[in-house]
Design goal:
This is Protein tyrosine phosphatase. It comes from Secundilactobacillus paracollinoides. The chain is of the alpha/beta class and 265 residues long. The protein contains 13 helices and 7 strands. Helices cover 55% and strands 10% of the residues. α9 packs antiparallel against α10.
Amino acid sequence: MQTTKQRLLDISGGINFRELGGYPTLDGRTVKWQRVIRTASLARITDTDQQTLLNYGVTVDVDFRSQTEINKEPDRVPTGVRYQHLPVFDDDKTENSKTQAQIQAELKAQAENGFQHMLETYHDMITTTQSHIAYQQFFTTLLATEDNVVLFHCTAGKDRTGMGAVFLLNALGVPETTIKQDYLLTNQVAADLVNRRLASAKAEGASSQLLDSIKALWRVSDAYYQTAMTAIHDNYGNMNGFLNQALQLSPQDIADLKALYLTKA
């Protein structure tokens, strides 16, 4: 398996831009390089970053964010790249686009902490109709893209994007241990950003409880992943049932995805 450094794209105006290529599958094949990349928002990428994405072969930008998030920080879509808005939620349930004051007010109003909030968010990603529709359309885009690169993202590239990667890698037959490693890789890749945000909040007088909530909101977790897997088990039996029933992927769709995105090792 490639190193984290090899997996990261050189994007100066964004975080968590990384390849899904190179992962081995259970049937002895490998996910193709330069076919799918998972990222955070494109709102602050530079002109050079735009050209980097074009040179890499990106032709589709799938945005899982809510309209409110997009209004606040719209993507800088490279010229010639098709933009597709597929909101997983009506608003930013991950809270990653919100200020410290907004986070504190919302958690107080809901009488919960950041960790509890994220558990609910992951459950909703598995069970809500809007989420299903967004990921169904994501797979429709993947199935229609034969040679170029599909880029998909949310705000921080970790929750809505992370689960999109989980669904895709499962459909391609990547082992669960590898899928979970890719999901958790965000904590390593975004560690500096999270630490800076925590330091800033602490300097502004944030309580220890709020700091814990911010950390929970800006990181991924075994518990979040397991909440999603439990919801899949409880509602669909297993991942294959979820892909078929919730995301409407037929056995032929799965075979077509593998033909498009896998190569012999």
